[in-house]
Amino acid sequence: MRKINVFDTTLRDGEQSAGVNLNFQEKVEIAKQLERLGVDIIEAGFPASSQGDFASVQAIARTVKGSSVTGLARSIERDIDTAWEALKDSAEPRIHTFIATSPIHMQYKLRMTPEQVIEHAVASVKFAAAKFPHVQWSAEDASRTELPFLAKIIRAVIDAGATVINLPDTVGYTTPYEIGEMFQYVTKNVQNIDKAILSTHNHDDLGMAVANSLAAIQNGAGQVECTLNGIGERAGNASLEEIAVALQIRQDHYQAKTGLTLNEIKRTSALVSKLTGMVVPNNKAVVGANAFAHESGIHQDGVLKNKETYEIITPELVGVSSNRMVLGKHSGRHMFKEKLTELGFTGTDEQLQTIFVAFKELADKKKDITEDDLFSLMTEASVGVAVPHYELETLQVNYGTTNIPTATITMKNPNGETIQEAATGSGSVEAIYNTLERVIDAPIILTDYRIQSVSGGRDALAEVYVTVKYEELETSGRGTANDVLEASAKAYINAVNRTIDRKNYQEQQLNVINNV
Ligand SMILES: CC(=O)SCCNC(=O)CCNC(=O)[C@H](O)C(C)(C)COP(=O)(O)OP(=O)(O)OC[C@H]1O[C@@H](n2cnc3c(N)ncnc32)[C@H](O)[C@@H]1OP(=O)(O)O
Ligand SMILES: CC(C)C(=O)C(=O)O
């Protein structure tokens, strides 16, 4: 199987992302993690671009021993000299020098004729090769370069001492088919091509950077240039994690592999995201938060029966501890039962069905159902719900900073009649409790009221605990709802219902005693 060298340019092209500016320590930290990940080459920066970049490239060259370290330089002696100063202490000094070869870049940007570009390229490669044991040369905008000219300049720079030839799709313009043709053309038409390794470097302007990189590998590239999380100039570069995992999972197709320690991928991605401030989208392949999350019932059922039904990558492969089964409105009974069993549920199928119905209702209102939510539903199903002597039908609260809070409640009483009442209070909860007292038509004293959110986040469930003194009994009650006021009403009614249960039980006991 062919080994593909991974050239990571997170610290150079990745840092060219708009809004990203890594400091010295951050660059060194990322470089150390790239070394742990096992990348073959780290492009640490552009030493001639600033003092800061020079210092961090130098520090990385001195610190990192497990990966080769390189820096970018234009075809200018001053850039190459500066790169040498920054890189000379590295284990295997390596330079990356480049010049544009497409008609538009040569004419408008460089203002050089094609012959002048060849002269500059050859002179700079010779100059670099006199210092560096490894010289990488890039034909900037190769994908928009005329192929005969590309072949001509490549032959010349290899003769001048270049050992790696990189053919970038600088503006993310090419397609997998075209890049394949370009690599084939170069392989066939550059006589001395066997003296160099071909490299591919792709941008994502048309969303094809990874596909183009893989196509280049299939057509002869022995090195792939990429960044963590696909960050980079404009729409970014080809993403390292996607290429590495594609090569691993589709070895049958690509017949090529990298030397990366794949289970360092997630950690490296997270570090780069944190230090660059570039958030990884949830749906990003391989490293996104949802990459191993299953949400829908049919998928979850399949995964429970055999993971391979819906998982082509194991999370462990890339350093994610496990897949994630998200309970939500699309989940089905199989996953629900599995989750409840994990949480210690030992009830009957009937109880399970009751909780499942409550869960679906909740899931319609709430985006993420947490374990705490499930505990709460389980508890309500097994111990919390008293016989519904009084049942809440509707609750409406009118609150404003300039008016008196008023609650209007419709309820079923123990005789099955619907009663509507309204009352005011100094706050919304008091208005609700005053209204409930009217409906129940008995003096009820609230002796304790506690509120807590069952789960974190803005859409957390509210759980309210109350203790009421009613009919000389002090009884507690609990209510859970998305809304604090609804939970407060439910808790109060729950306490009243439980009091009635206790009273009924006491009466039954008395009857038994009297009959005896
Ligand atoms: C495709 C890529 O990603 S290439 C890398 C891009 N990265 C960067 O540019 C980041 C670092 N760059 C910088 O800090 C600055 O641009 C520097 C220090 C390199 C140069 O800054 P300045 O001297 O102010 O020049 P400026 O950036 O405005 O213009 C670039 C100059 O380099 C020339 N140039 C561009 N590429 C090359 C090259 N490969 N070889 C020689 N000259 C080049 C341009 O023609 C222009 O020259 P001119 O001043 O004679 O017109
Ligand atoms: C310097 C080269 C390799 C580059 O970054 C590009 O062409 O995108």
From TrEMBL:
<keyword id="KW-0479">Metal-binding</keyword>
<dbReference type="GO" id="GO:0030145">
    <property type="term" value="F:manganese ion binding"/>
</dbReference>
<feature type="binding site">
    <location>
        <position position="13"/>
    </location>
    <ligand>
        <name>Mn(2+)</name>
    </ligand>
</feature>
<feature type="binding site">
    <location>
        <position position="203"/>
    </location>
    <ligand>
        <name>Mn(2+)</name>
    </ligand>
</feature>
<dbReference type="Pfam" id="PF08502">
    <property type="entry name" value="LeuA_dimer"/>
</dbReference>
<keyword id="KW-0028">Amino-acid biosynthesis</keyword>
<dbReference type="Pfam" id="PF00682">
    <property type="entry name" value="HMGL-like"/>
</dbReference>
<keyword id="KW-0963">Cytoplasm</keyword>
<dbReference type="InterPro" id="IPR013785">
    <property type="entry name" value="Aldolase_TIM"/>
</dbReference>
<feature type="region of interest" description="Regulatory domain">
    <location>
        <begin position="391"/>
        <end position="516"/>
    </location>
</feature>
<protein>
    <recommendedName>
        <fullName>2-isopropylmalate synthase</fullName>
        <ecNumber>2.3.3.13</ecNumber>
    </recommendedName>
</protein>
<keyword id="KW-0100">Branched-chain amino acid biosynthesis</keyword>
<dbReference type="InterPro" id="IPR000891">
    <property type="entry name" value="PYR_CT"/>
</dbReference>
<dbReference type="InterPro" id="IPR013709">
    <property type="entry name" value="2-isopropylmalate_synth_dimer"/>
</dbReference>
<comment type="similarity">
    <text>Belongs to the alpha-IPM synthase/homocitrate synthase family. LeuA type 1 subfamily.</text>
</comment>
<keyword id="KW-0432">Leucine biosynthesis</keyword>
<comment type="subunit">
    <text>Homodimer.</text>
</comment>
<dbReference type="Pfam" id="PF22617">
    <property type="entry name" value="HCS_D2"/>
</dbReference>
<dbReference type="GO" id="GO:0005737">
    <property type="term" value="C:cytoplasm"/>
</dbReference>
<dbReference type="InterPro" id="IPR005671">
    <property type="entry name" value="LeuA_bact_synth"/>
</dbReference>
<keyword id="KW-0808">Transferase</keyword>
<comment type="pathway">
    <text>Amino-acid biosynthesis; L-leucine biosynthesis; L-leucine from 3-methyl-2-oxobutanoate: step 1/4.</text>
</comment>
<dbReference type="InterPro" id="IPR002034">
    <property type="entry name" value="AIPM/Hcit_synth_CS"/>
</dbReference>
<dbReference type="GO" id="GO:0009098">
    <property type="term" value="P:L-leucine biosynthetic process"/>
</dbReference>
<feature type="domain" description="Pyruvate carboxyltransferase">
    <location>
        <begin position="4"/>
        <end position="266"/>
    </location>
</feature>
<feature type="binding site">
    <location>
        <position position="201"/>
    </location>
    <ligand>
        <name>Mn(2+)</name>
    </ligand>
</feature>
<keyword id="KW-0464">Manganese</keyword>
<keyword id="KW-0012">Acyltransferase</keyword>
<dbReference type="GO" id="GO:0003852">
    <property type="term" value="F:2-isopropylmalate synthase activity"/>
</dbReference>
<dbReference type="InterPro" id="IPR036230">
    <property type="entry name" value="LeuA_allosteric_dom_sf"/>
</dbReference>
<feature type="binding site">
    <location>
        <position position="237"/>
    </location>
    <ligand>
        <name>Mn(2+)</name>
    </ligand>
</feature>
<dbReference type="InterPro" id="IPR054691">
    <property type="entry name" value="LeuA/HCS_post-cat"/>
</dbReference>
<comment type="function">
    <text>Catalyzes the condensation of the acetyl group of acetyl-CoA with 3-methyl-2-oxobutanoate (2-ketoisovalerate) to form 3-carboxy-3-hydroxy-4-methylpentanoate (2-isopropylmalate).</text>
</comment>
<dbReference type="InterPro" id="IPR050073">
    <property type="entry name" value="2-IPM_HCS-like"/>
</dbReference>
<dbReference type="GO" id="GO:0003985">
    <property type="term" value="F:acetyl-CoA C-acetyltransferase activity"/>
</dbReference>
